[in-house]
Amino acid sequence: MHTSLPTAACVLAIDPTTPSTLYAGTFDGVFKSTDSGGSWNAMNSGLGRSPFPAVTALVIDPTTPSTLYAGTVGDGVFKSTDGGASWSAMNSGLTTLFIRALAIDRATPATVYAGTVGGVFTFTTTTPPPCTSARCVIEAVLQSAECLGQPVPAGVTENLDKAANLAEQTPLSSRKTARMQLKQATKDLNQAKATATRAAKHKNPKLSRACAAKLRTISGVRGHCGGSMAHTPICLPPLVCKPNRNPKTGGRCRSQA
Protein backbone atom coordinates (compact mmCIF):
# COMPACT_ATOMS: atom_id res chain seq x y z
CA MET A 1 0.00 0.00 0.00
CA HIS A 2 1.35 3.40 -0.94
CA THR A 3 0.99 5.99 1.81
CA SER A 4 2.15 9.50 2.58
CA LEU A 5 4.65 8.26 5.17
CA PRO A 6 7.67 10.39 4.19
CA THR A 7 10.39 8.06 5.43
CA ALA A 8 11.12 4.40 5.99
CA ALA A 9 9.42 2.75 8.98
CA CYS A 10 11.40 0.68 11.47
CA VAL A 11 8.45 -0.50 13.55
CA LEU A 12 4.64 -0.32 13.52
CA ALA A 13 2.13 -0.36 16.38
CA ILE A 14 -1.67 -0.66 16.14
CA ASP A 15 -4.12 0.80 18.65
CA PRO A 16 -5.84 -2.27 20.17
CA THR A 17 -9.19 -0.52 20.57
CA THR A 18 -9.14 1.56 17.35
CA PRO A 19 -7.36 -0.51 14.67
CA SER A 20 -7.52 2.36 12.16
CA THR A 21 -5.06 4.26 14.39
CA LEU A 22 -1.46 3.34 13.60
CA TYR A 23 1.91 4.51 14.89
CA ALA A 24 5.09 4.19 12.86
CA GLY A 25 8.58 4.43 14.31
CA THR A 26 10.81 5.82 11.58
CA PHE A 27 14.29 7.24 11.00
CA ASP A 28 12.69 10.66 11.57
CA GLY A 29 10.74 10.02 14.77
CA VAL A 30 7.13 8.89 15.24
CA PHE A 31 4.30 9.28 12.76
CA LYS A 32 0.61 8.64 13.42
CA SER A 33 -2.27 7.71 11.12
CA THR A 34 -5.95 7.71 12.08
CA ASP A 35 -7.19 6.40 8.74
CA SER A 36 -5.53 2.99 8.47
CA GLY A 37 -2.35 4.37 6.93
CA GLY A 38 -3.96 6.57 4.31
CA SER A 39 -2.24 9.66 5.71
CA TRP A 40 0.37 10.32 8.39
CA ASN A 41 1.33 13.16 10.72
CA ALA A 42 4.58 13.62 12.64
CA MET A 43 4.16 13.29 16.43
CA ASN A 44 7.53 14.37 17.76
CA SER A 45 6.91 17.05 20.38
CA GLY A 46 9.42 16.37 23.16
CA LEU A 47 10.91 13.36 21.41
CA GLY A 48 14.61 14.03 21.96
CA ARG A 49 16.83 16.38 20.06
CA SER A 50 16.19 17.71 16.55
CA PRO A 51 16.59 16.23 14.01
CA PHE A 52 14.53 13.61 15.76
CA PRO A 53 16.13 10.26 16.55
CA ALA A 54 15.38 7.01 14.80
CA VAL A 55 12.62 5.13 16.62
CA THR A 56 13.33 1.41 16.69
CA ALA A 57 10.65 0.24 19.15
CA LEU A 58 7.03 1.16 19.88
CA VAL A 59 4.59 -0.39 22.33
CA ILE A 60 1.06 0.59 23.36
CA ASP A 61 -0.40 0.11 26.82
CA PRO A 62 -3.15 -2.51 26.25
CA THR A 63 -5.36 -1.07 29.00
CA THR A 64 -4.80 2.61 28.17
CA PRO A 65 -4.12 2.91 24.42
CA SER A 66 -3.40 6.64 24.66
CA THR A 67 -0.25 5.67 26.56
CA LEU A 68 2.66 4.46 24.46
CA TYR A 69 6.42 4.10 24.67
CA ALA A 70 9.07 4.74 22.05
CA GLY A 71 12.61 3.38 22.02
CA THR A 72 15.21 5.39 20.12
CA VAL A 73 18.74 5.15 18.82
CA GLY A 74 20.83 7.30 21.12
CA ASP A 75 18.10 9.13 23.07
CA GLY A 76 16.65 6.33 25.18
CA VAL A 77 13.02 5.65 26.01
CA PHE A 78 10.13 8.12 25.79
CA LYS A 79 6.58 7.96 27.08
CA SER A 80 3.43 9.61 25.77
CA THR A 81 0.11 9.68 27.62
CA ASP A 82 -1.82 11.60 24.96
CA GLY A 83 -1.62 9.41 21.88
CA GLY A 84 1.78 10.71 20.77
CA ALA A 85 0.93 14.41 20.92
CA SER A 86 3.76 14.94 23.43
CA TRP A 87 6.62 12.85 24.82
CA SER A 88 8.80 12.82 27.92
CA ALA A 89 12.04 10.93 28.50
CA MET A 90 12.14 8.09 31.04
CA ASN A 91 15.80 7.09 31.10
CA SER A 92 16.49 6.81 34.82
CA GLY A 93 18.68 3.77 35.43
CA LEU A 94 19.64 3.17 31.80
CA THR A 95 23.35 2.69 31.16
CA THR A 96 22.90 3.08 27.41
CA LEU A 97 20.43 5.09 25.34
CA PHE A 98 20.48 2.77 22.33
CA ILE A 99 17.18 0.88 22.47
CA ARG A 100 16.52 -2.23 20.42
CA ALA A 101 13.16 -3.45 21.76
CA LEU A 102 10.37 -2.60 24.21
CA ALA A 103 7.75 -4.83 25.83
CA ILE A 104 4.89 -4.27 28.27
CA ASP A 105 3.90 -6.81 30.92
CA ARG A 106 0.29 -7.50 29.94
CA ALA A 107 -0.55 -8.65 33.48
CA THR A 108 0.98 -5.48 34.96
CA PRO A 109 1.02 -2.77 32.23
CA ALA A 110 2.89 -0.38 34.52
CA THR A 111 5.95 -2.61 34.02
CA VAL A 112 7.91 -1.91 30.83
CA TYR A 113 11.00 -3.80 29.64
CA ALA A 114 13.65 -2.18 27.46
CA GLY A 115 16.08 -4.28 25.46
CA THR A 116 19.25 -2.27 24.83
CA VAL A 117 22.76 -2.84 23.50
CA GLY A 118 23.79 -3.12 27.17
CA GLY A 119 21.16 -5.61 28.30
CA VAL A 120 17.54 -5.60 29.50
CA PHE A 121 16.19 -2.94 31.86
CA THR A 122 12.88 -2.73 33.71
CA PHE A 123 10.80 0.39 34.27
CA THR A 124 7.87 0.66 36.64
CA THR A 125 5.65 3.52 35.58
CA THR A 126 2.64 5.06 37.22
CA THR A 127 -0.55 6.08 35.47
CA PRO A 128 -1.85 9.52 36.41
CA PRO A 129 -5.41 9.74 37.73
CA PRO A 130 -8.09 10.26 35.09
CA CYS A 131 -8.76 13.81 34.01
CA THR A 132 -12.22 14.69 35.35
CA SER A 133 -12.42 18.43 36.01
CA ALA A 134 -14.21 20.50 33.41
CA ARG A 135 -11.20 22.54 32.38
CA CYS A 136 -8.89 19.52 32.31
CA VAL A 137 -11.21 17.40 30.15
CA ILE A 138 -11.78 20.19 27.64
CA GLU A 139 -8.10 21.13 27.38
CA ALA A 140 -7.14 17.46 26.96
CA VAL A 141 -9.52 17.14 24.00
CA LEU A 142 -8.36 20.38 22.36
CA GLN A 143 -4.71 19.29 22.78
CA SER A 144 -5.35 15.75 21.54
CA ALA A 145 -3.73 14.44 18.38
CA GLU A 146 -7.05 14.76 16.56
CA CYS A 147 -7.53 18.46 17.36
CA LEU A 148 -4.02 19.82 17.91
CA GLY A 149 -3.32 22.45 15.25
CA GLN A 150 -6.89 22.35 13.96
CA PRO A 151 -8.68 25.69 13.29
CA VAL A 152 -11.38 25.02 15.91
CA PRO A 153 -14.23 27.51 15.28
CA ALA A 154 -14.64 30.31 17.82
CA GLY A 155 -18.22 29.17 18.46
CA VAL A 156 -16.86 25.85 19.71
CA THR A 157 -14.17 27.22 22.01
CA GLU A 158 -16.45 29.94 23.40
CA ASN A 159 -19.16 27.47 24.38
CA LEU A 160 -16.61 25.04 25.82
CA ASP A 161 -15.20 27.86 27.94
CA LYS A 162 -18.69 28.80 29.15
CA ALA A 163 -19.38 25.19 30.12
CA ALA A 164 -16.09 24.94 32.01
CA ASN A 165 -16.68 28.22 33.87
CA LEU A 166 -20.15 27.14 34.98
CA ALA A 167 -18.95 23.71 36.06
CA GLU A 168 -16.21 25.29 38.17
CA GLN A 169 -18.73 27.55 39.92
CA THR A 170 -21.13 24.82 41.05
CA PRO A 171 -19.23 23.60 44.15
CA LEU A 172 -19.64 27.06 45.72
CA SER A 173 -23.28 27.51 44.73
CA SER A 174 -26.52 26.60 46.44
CA ARG A 175 -28.06 23.34 45.33
CA LYS A 176 -30.72 25.13 43.32
CA THR A 177 -28.20 27.38 41.62
CA ALA A 178 -25.83 24.46 41.04
CA ARG A 179 -28.55 22.52 39.23
CA MET A 180 -29.23 25.50 36.98
CA GLN A 181 -25.52 25.93 36.29
CA LEU A 182 -25.11 22.24 35.40
CA LYS A 183 -28.10 22.44 33.08
CA GLN A 184 -26.73 25.51 31.29
CA ALA A 185 -23.22 24.05 31.14
CA THR A 186 -24.61 20.94 29.44
CA LYS A 187 -26.46 23.14 26.92
CA ASP A 188 -23.26 25.06 26.17
CA LEU A 189 -21.35 21.82 25.75
CA ASN A 190 -23.96 20.38 23.39
CA GLN A 191 -23.93 23.62 21.38
CA ALA A 192 -20.15 23.38 21.05
CA LYS A 193 -20.39 19.79 19.80
CA ALA A 194 -23.15 20.67 17.34
CA THR A 195 -21.09 23.57 15.96
CA ALA A 196 -18.08 21.28 15.57
CA THR A 197 -20.14 18.68 13.74
CA ARG A 198 -21.51 21.27 11.31
CA ALA A 199 -18.03 22.68 10.69
CA ALA A 200 -16.78 19.22 9.69
CA LYS A 201 -19.66 18.54 7.27
CA HIS A 202 -19.15 21.44 4.85
CA LYS A 203 -17.90 20.79 1.32
CA ASN A 204 -14.88 22.80 2.38
CA PRO A 205 -14.74 21.67 6.02
CA LYS A 206 -13.37 24.11 8.56
CA LEU A 207 -12.63 21.27 10.99
CA SER A 208 -11.52 17.69 10.50
CA ARG A 209 -14.03 14.92 11.12
CA ALA A 210 -11.57 13.30 13.51
CA CYS A 211 -11.49 16.42 15.70
CA ALA A 212 -15.28 16.79 15.61
CA ALA A 213 -15.61 13.15 16.66
CA LYS A 214 -13.12 13.70 19.49
CA LEU A 215 -15.13 16.66 20.77
CA ARG A 216 -18.26 14.54 20.78
CA THR A 217 -16.60 12.10 23.21
CA ILE A 218 -17.10 14.69 25.95
CA SER A 219 -20.30 13.06 27.12
CA GLY A 220 -21.63 15.75 29.42
CA VAL A 221 -21.38 17.58 32.70
CA ARG A 222 -22.23 15.38 35.67
CA GLY A 223 -22.44 15.95 39.38
CA HIS A 224 -20.59 12.70 40.11
CA CYS A 225 -18.99 9.99 38.03
CA GLY A 226 -18.41 6.36 38.88
CA GLY A 227 -17.63 3.12 37.06
CA SER A 228 -16.21 2.75 33.57
CA MET A 229 -17.51 4.90 30.74
CA ALA A 230 -16.98 4.73 27.00
CA HIS A 231 -16.91 8.50 26.69
CA THR A 232 -15.16 11.23 28.67
CA PRO A 233 -17.49 12.97 31.12
CA ILE A 234 -16.85 16.22 32.91
CA CYS A 235 -17.25 15.31 36.58
CA LEU A 236 -17.70 17.52 39.58
CA PRO A 237 -16.60 16.70 43.13
CA PRO A 238 -19.43 15.48 45.38
CA LEU A 239 -21.06 18.37 47.21
CA VAL A 240 -21.36 18.70 50.96
CA CYS A 241 -24.10 21.11 51.93
CA LYS A 242 -24.08 23.22 55.05
CA PRO A 243 -27.37 23.59 56.95
CA ASN A 244 -29.29 26.79 56.39
CA ARG A 245 -32.01 28.17 58.61
CA ASN A 246 -34.03 29.20 55.59
CA PRO A 247 -35.17 25.98 53.84
CA LYS A 248 -36.04 27.86 50.67
CA THR A 249 -32.43 28.71 49.93
CA GLY A 250 -31.29 25.09 50.02
CA GLY A 251 -28.12 25.88 51.97
CA ARG A 252 -24.63 26.44 50.64
CA CYS A 253 -22.50 23.65 49.23
CA ARG A 254 -18.78 23.10 49.15
CA SER A 255 -16.66 20.54 47.34
CA GLN A 256 -15.23 17.55 49.16
CA ALA A 257 -12.11 17.72 46.97
The number of E-state strands comes to: 15
Number of domains as seen in the coordinates? 2
| SS class | alpha+beta
Quote the distance from N terminus to C terminus: 52 Å
Order of helices and strands: EEEEEEEEEEEHHHHEEEE
Report the portion of residues in β strands: 25-35%
Oligomer: single chain
Q: Radius of gyration from the CA trace? A: 22 Å
Low-confidence stretches: 223-257
Counting DSSP H or I runs of 4 or more residues, the number of helices is: 4
Largest sheet: 4 strands, antiparallel
Overall average pLDDT: 79
Q: How are the strands of the biggest sheet laid out side by side? A: 1-2-3-4
Helix fraction, binned, reads 10-25%
Taken from the alpha-carbon principal axes, the silhouette is globular
Structure description:
- The structure is a single chain.
- The protein is an alpha+beta fold.
- The protein folds into two domains: 9-124, Methylamine Dehydrogenase, Chain H (7 Propeller), CATH 2.130.10; 134-255, no CATH class.
- Helix content is 23%, strand content 27%.
- The protein has a four-stranded antiparallel sheet with strand order 1-2-3-4, with no helix packed on it. A four-stranded antiparallel sheet has the order 5-6-7-8, with no helix packed on it.
- A hairpin with a 6-residue loop joins strand 9 (99-104) and strand 10 (111-116).
- It is globular.
- The model is unreliable at 223-257 (pLDDT under 50).
List the helices and strands and how they pair.
Elements: E1 9-14, E2 22-26, E3 29-33, E4 41-42, E5 55-60, E6 68-72, E7 77-80, E8 88-89, E9 99-104, E10 111-116, E11 119-124, H1 134-142, H2 154-169, H3 175-201, H4 209-216, E12 218-222, E13 232-235, E14 239-242, E15 252-255
Parallel strand pairs: 12-13
Antiparallel strand pairs: 1-2, 2-3, 3-4, 5-6, 6-7, 7-8, 9-10, 10-11, 14-15
